[in-house]
Amino acid sequence: MRIVTIEQFRDEKKRKNIRDDVDVDQTVLEIIRHVQKDGDNELRTYTEQFDGIRLAEIKVSEEEFEEAQALVTQPFIDSLRRAMRNIQAFHEVQKEQSWFTTSDDGILLGQKVTPMESVGVYVPGGKASYPSTVLMNVIPAKIAGVKKIAITTPPRRDGKVDPHVLVAAMETGVNVVYKVGGAQAIAALAYGTETVQKVVKIVGPGNVYVARAKKWVFGDVAIDMIAGPSEICVLADDSAVPRFVAADLLSQAEHDERATAICITTSKEFAESLKDEIEQQMKSVDRMDVIEKSITDNGRIIVVNALAEAFELVNELAPEHLQLMIDNPLDQLRFIQNAGAIFIGNYSPEVLGDYMAGPNHTLPTSGTARFSSPLGVYDFMKKSSVIQYSAQALESVTDAIITLAEAERLTAHANSIRVRKVDGNAQ
User: Fold this and answer.
1) Exposed, middle or buried: residue 419 (CB in 10 Å: 0-12, 13-18, 19+)?
2) What is the mean pLDDT of residues 350-366?
3) 91 is in an annotated binding site
4) Exposed/middle/buried for 3, CB within 10 Å: 0-12, 13-18, 19+?
């Protein structure tokens, strides 16, 4: 892992080519059109093409759910339930309620909060199994009050869905799971097929084809975000433990060859120790090819002159995951403006957030933490403004409204108010 200065890092970042998604978009749009036109038949065709499986049934059967229960261990179920309790407790606090205010002059104003009717959760497959994604997406939707939740996920080579994912679905109360992945799954959720019911909103991470498909169906359905590869940024000084930081960086690098693992430090000595530790730990990792490419292409140890410079760079990057492994981290939290999730101290690794702490692990990536938030209960609820005026209350603002409408040359707007005036009084 290379050690660079902040100037070198910024220069590298500028020179990196912007990813060209034109070819991806062409493929994705073709898939969307085909699924819209031919439904289940195209889902089977694309699943055979991309996953090597010709599906007999697109929807997971009751027998497959029962089989999955027999294939997972009790410690897994116990751990899953413990994580569920923490996630439930954290997200319960986020639930918003409808509210109304009234005044003596006959005005009622408020906001009606309503859960979305249906949600589709995309759970990635392929390189790993992600039961934690089920929990992080389904639990806040359930708390919000969403009645219809379906999961779609790529099948394995044997035509089955990973049993850990199915058990997570059962534990969260979801009994509709489709064995479809990729852009075709997003299209099916957005527009519906003979088997797949269309939904109001699609959530969940995926590869570049899934991300681009979500972008193209947005507007016909809602989406959570367009997530990119995983990111971690560790801000460390001499109080950090190199062994811990190295392990945390590698934990994110194993997600994807395009994942980004960065450490910003004020200490050259720490940077050298961390580099040695990363090289040592990489010798014993399982996903060596993925990690090595991720670290080589996107991993950097950046040496800065002072914490102020480090905070500036962190806010510039707006990382998905930020670990503050510095002296008095809580006192320094006020300097962080842009980050998806912030992990404080040597004993709060990012992986804790992936599985057990409770806050959502679906987070803004690619710098979008500058304006986006983690997935939450609020993402599954919508709000309607409520307005009621009495005749007397309307009369008190009639002239002002007419004046504003006529200033905008919207005479029909003005007339909508004027017709309610009779002898100078609203009726």
Assistant:
1) exposed
2) 96
3) no
4) middle
413 annotated as a binding-site residue? yes
Answer yes or no: is 122 a known binding residue: yes
Just list the catalytic residues: 320-321
**CA–CA distance, 248 with 233 (Å, rounded to integer):** 10
Instruction: For strands 177-178 and 222-223, give the pairing.
Output: unpaired
3-state secondary structure of 416: helix
Side-chain half-sphere of 151: how many Cα atoms within 13 Å? 32
pLDDT at 334 over 90: yes
Cα separation of 26 and 262, whole Å? Answer: 33
Tell me whether residue 78 is annotated as binding. Answer: no
Q: What is the signed CA dihedral for 74, 79, 82, 83, rounded to 10 degrees? A: -140
The neighbouring-strand residues paired with 150 are 120
Question: Domains in the chain and their CATH numbers?
Answer: 22-103+116-223 (3.40.50.1980), 228-371 (3.40.50.1980), 390-426 (no CATH)
Contact 361, 354 (CB under 8 A): yes
Distance between CA atoms of residues 312 and 336, nearest Å: 9
| Residue-wise pLDDT tens digits, 151-186 | 999 999 899 999 999 999 999 999 999 999 999 999
Judge whether 130 is annotated as a binding position.
no
In terms of Cβ atoms closer than 10 Å to its own Cβ (0-12, 13-18, 19+), residue 159 is middle
On the CB side of 393, CA atoms within 13 Å amount to 12
